[in-house]
Amino acid sequence: MDIYEAIRHRYSCRAYANTPIEKEKLDRILTSAAAAPSAKNLRDWRFVVVTDTKIKEQLKVAANNQSFIAQAPVVIVGCSNSDYVMRCGHGISLIDLSIAMEHIALTATAEGLATCWIGSFYPEKVRAVLGIPETIEVVELMTIGTPTDEEKHKALEPLENVVCYDKWKF
């Protein structure tokens, strides 16, 4: 699957088969995250890959009891070890992790798997479940697995509604 197909087919999956992800596939997915660009090449991301059923059940609770989180074969918890702020005023943790996590989502899609970004969670609860130090920011959770639901897509916004050239023209 090429990158354009992966972009078109990626969706937020909330139903997974009880099938483990092959180590080779998971390694390719994680390698794609490690290859993502980062501010000042700090590579501030750290990933906790959770496959243990009991730990996934605890993560489900830390994420507002969303049951599909425990159902997914893998939950990746994206963290940052940097509080560096760029000249534009933005901290790199959210940006760098978002880039790396989308690399994960697109690579997983290319591998025939599905993912879901999890934004509804309590970082302090996730930190406690996984033993993540206070100095590390818990940024994002993502489920990965073989989908059992239908691929769902919303209509794309027309380009003229989201893109202008040279100056703000919205």
Layout of strands and helices, then pairs:
Blueprint (H helix, E strand, L loop, with lengths): L2 H7 L13 H12 L10 E6 L2 H10 L4 H5 L2 E7 L11 H19 L3 E5 L4 H8 L6 E9 L13 H4 L8
Antiparallel strand pairs: 1-2, 2-4, 3-4
Structure characterization notes:
- The chain has one domain (3-162): 3-Layer(aba) Sandwich (NADH Oxidase), CATH 3.40.109.
- The mean pLDDT is 96.
- 32% of the residues are buried.
- The chain has helices at 3-9, 23-34, 53-62, 67-71, 92-110, 123-130, 159-162; strands at residues 45-50, 74-80, 114-118, 137-145.
- Helix 1 (3-9) packs across helix 5, helix 2 (23-34) runs antiparallel to helix 5 and helix 3 (53-62) runs antiparallel to helix 6 (123-130).
- The radius of gyration is 17 Å and the shape is globular.
- Helix content is 38%, strand content 16%.
- The chain has a 4-stranded antiparallel β-sheet, sandwiched between helices.
- The chain is an alpha+beta fold and 170 residues long.
- It contains 7 helices and 4 strands, in the order H-H-E-H-H-E-H-E-H-E-H.
